[in-house]
Amino acid sequence: MRAVPTTAYVLFLLRWVVISTLIGGLAGTASAIFLVSLDWVTHWRETHLVLIALLPVAGFFIGLAYHLFGNQVVRGNNLILDEIHAPRQLIPLRLVPLVLGGTLLTHLFGGSAGREGTAVQMGGALADQLTRLLKLRPRDRRLLLIAGISAGFASVFGTPLAGAVFGLEVFLLGSMRYDALLPSFLAAVSADFVTRAWGVGHTHYPQLASLPITPLTILYALIAGVLFGLVARSFAALVHRISQLFGRIAYAPLRPVLGGVLVAASVWALGTTRYIGLGVPVIVEAFHLSLSPADFALKLLLTALTLGCGFKGGEVTPLFFIGATLGSALAGVVPLPVALLAGMGFVGVFAGAANTPIACTLMGLELFGVQAGVYLALACVVAYLFSGHTGIYSAQQIGQAKHLRFGRQQGSRLGDL
Amino acid sequence: MRAVPTTAYVLFLLRWVVISTLIGGLAGTASAIFLVSLDWVTHWRETHLVLIALLPVAGFFIGLAYHLFGNQVVRGNNLILDEIHAPRQLIPLRLVPLVLGGTLLTHLFGGSAGREGTAVQMGGALADQLTRLLKLRPRDRRLLLIAGISAGFASVFGTPLAGAVFGLEVFLLGSMRYDALLPSFLAAVSADFVTRAWGVGHTHYPQLASLPITPLTILYALIAGVLFGLVARSFAALVHRISQLFGRIAYAPLRPVLGGVLVAASVWALGTTRYIGLGVPVIVEAFHLSLSPADFALKLLLTALTLGCGFKGGEVTPLFFIGATLGSALAGVVPLPVALLAGMGFVGVFAGAANTPIACTLMGLELFGVQAGVYLALACVVAYLFSGHTGIYSAQQIGQAKHLRFGRQQGSRLGDL
């Protein structure tokens, strides 16, 4: 053992223990505030349903705020991914109040959205403030942004291992680089610790029972995985398409007004709030009884509409909803236990839409236990394959093509295909 | 959704369901035969200790067999990794009887070795026989070899997820590519299924209890991780050094004769068989009481000697032994539970020595449950960092440097540094 390399690693470790702890403190605290507020606005909406009629008004204010102050940050998650690939400028701190306020208004007035986008953007933007403070060089800033994503994801879902790997996996499709391995794991663990230390808990999902593996159960799992991947792809395509359509409205603040009218009218026509907000109660329901296919389809449409027109939040919790209810509905035709299919859909659709199969496998293990690990992993891996070169993050670069036939697309951003 | 890409993915899926099932059948059956034989020779040795005196003779026959018939395959794991990077020729089927026989003789006569090398080499070599049979193109053969490694690893340890990721992670240090994702997972799952279907079970390790995360427990985990990484590095360095020293003996079959004399004499002097063979009972013991540091040190020396002089087997189970007993010994000074430290060492030292942190994290979750997942992951990640650009596989290429200071080493093989 030569002394020099070990010293370099010791310095690297010490440096990132300090920086990642700071990231964890910032992102974890932001996630705690966000989760508590989100609980509060969700509860307030469910007890004051008239608020949903005001969704177009809320949309106008969100659109106006971004129009006036948010030109630089309206690309959200994609802004952070772009900065990882090609650094241009510090991520403005104003991203934090804009995305936090926008998400809370979206949920208070009945949009269908998630929370990972918000947590990841807050994590990335807060982390990036350390760049100036600590005078970090560009190569360190890259690791810092990745660790910020990991911290935001880990703390908002209470899944530190999935969060750590999500940050490493999300910016490049088809490959993972380990230079940010230690920073991401440290930031994810400390952010999750900080959120929990603020007394904020997470949803408990059922632990999946072991199901003996047979060639037939594996075959069913593969079929389910294909469907999860195709639905993930449809979701991504629909959000992009809706977003393009709304782009025809020249004055941006009017886009969520129209979208808000459509979403609020749908809620009124459906006569239920089942498909708006995070939808956590329905996700839990999906593990216990086989739901109707209408559940996943309606959630998919309303979420694509909400996010495509300019409301804020994230795609991930709705994707959990879509996947879990799709899996649950499949239990009517695929002879696997309903809880298992719901769990597989939960992580599988998300793996396909975000192109993060290893993070989603880890998330499955963290949330549902290891007993059904093989089924969860196969759902993620197959869904990842079948979503093709599409996804919810247009700034994600293709590090390695999913199929040799599309090898020429390597190096492109998903949004540029 | 365009129709063409989905068709391409469907064909890819069908193709690899067939190929991976064949790989799984071959590798899983080979692992089953191997594990049953290994149990038998271990039991026979422990009831006929006089066999250990014949270790030098066994060494001569192993050395002679490889000298006469095994020139092409003596590089073992590294041959398979080299073929993944730069295909030259089919892996000769004779590798299978040579490594299987060599490993069984090593264990029967009291060498200190493992089994993953044997299983991985059998998996890779058997898979490669399909190359000719199915007339696979070079780009498919690459995926086939990776899937063969995954299948061998998964079936010999009963950990399909860790096996799948191990195959993906082991040939490139510091990065993971996903082109073999589906083939690896399918081959790992089916090989594990086949081994179990033959009625062959695996060691059950204790499920680790949850330990509340605090800044102090994380600090202890990081310190332990550093030690695991440094020990992994020492082990790899020692095996290479011993191997170089024995290389001075011109006639190769005499190398394991001398090594066998030294190992057998050590066993006689120590008066115990505690440090030879796989050592599974001691690994289990390490979870229950804090062992002496002598355990890890003696196992490290005897394994490095056994493998460095030319006996066969693998490094991984001895690394589990070294890590678990080192963790267990640390419980005397580091205030974490002994079972937790043993589990962290089990996966951590191996993660450092093989440079496979994600596979080892998954292995920890599969063997010890998710409750202590954060500690297991941190042990793997930190040990990975601190083993530096060293490791037990000299044909492993550096895909991404662990530290920017060593960026120039990217693209080199570990053995060429």
TrEMBL record, chains A, B:
Q: List the GO molecular function terms.
A: chloride transmembrane transporter activity
The cross-references to Gene3D superfamilies, in alphabetical order and at most eight, read: Clc chloride channel
How is this protein situated with respect to the membrane? Multi-pass membrane protein
Q: Which Pfam families match?
A: Voltage_CLC
Provide the Gene Ontology terms for cellular component: membrane
Q: InterPro entries, per this entry?
A: Cl-channel_core, ClC, ClC-type_chloride_channel
Task: List the transmembrane segments.
Answer: 12-36, 48-69, 143-168, 218-236, 257-276, 296-314, 326-354, 374-395
Chief subcellular location: membrane
Q: Which UniProt keywords apply?
A: Membrane, Transmembrane, Transmembrane helix
Which compartments does it reside in? Membrane
Task: Provide the coiled-coil residue spans.
Answer: none
Its name, as the record gives it, is Chloride channel protein
